[in-house]
Amino acid sequence: MKAAFLMIVLTGFLLSGCTMKDYDEVISTLDKRVQFTETKIDSLESRMNILEEKQNIIEKTVAENKKVQKPLAKREITADSITTKDMQLALRNASFYKGNIDGVSGPAMTSAIMEFQKANGLKPDGVAGSRTKGELIKYISEEAY
Questions:
Q1: What are the residues whose beta carbons fall under 8 Å from the beta carbon of 115, sequence distance 6 or more?
Q2: Matching CATH number, 84-144, of 1.10.10, 1.10.101, 1.10.3470, 1.20.1250
Q3: HSE on the CB side for 39, CA within 13 Å?
Q4: In angstroms, what CA-CA distances link 60 with 37, 83, 98, 100, 103?
Q5: What is the DSSP letter of 142?
Q6: What is the DSSP string of 60-71?
Q7: How many CB atoms lie within 10 A of CB 100?
């Protein structure tokens, strides 16, 4: 390719009446440009190889992290397994409890249970029995876990 280009340039100079000195200068300039371009191409290829190596490392790391980060198993909440924290969350979702979701039962939670029981046709005694817990479960969303 380079030789063919040089032949075309040489033929053009010969036909136009340029001297060999002019031809040598043009060839020298073209050779410098070709060398500069080849150096740039080598540099870009080197950069591209480095970027491909980095991309492979990132992809490998992401794949390894996906193996480590297993999704949490959704636990099934029943009247027997519901915790105080679960009940606080359910009562808050049902708009009966405004306290902290900390798993600690206190007067605010007892009051909230009584209000919840009244609203749901249960005996308002403030004690979360199996029927109350069964109703509370309906207010526990999966997003909470």
A1: 96, 124
A2: 1.10.101
A3: 6
A4: 34, 40, 46, 42, 41
A5: G
A6: HHHHHHHHH-PP
A7: 13
Q: Whole-angstrom Cα distance, residue 5 to residue 96? A: 86
Q: Please write the tens of the pLDDT for every residue from 31-56.
A: 899 899 999 999 999 999 999 999 99
Q: How far apart (Å, rounded) are the C-alpha atoms in residues 67 and 84?
A: 33
- What does the alpha-carbon distance between residue 136 and residue 5 come to, in Å, rounded to a whole number? 84
Average pLDDT, the chain: 84
- The pTM of this model reads 0.49
Q: Which of 34, 42, 128, 127 is nearest to 80 (CA)?
A: 128
- Cα(136)–Cα(116) distance, integer angstroms: 9
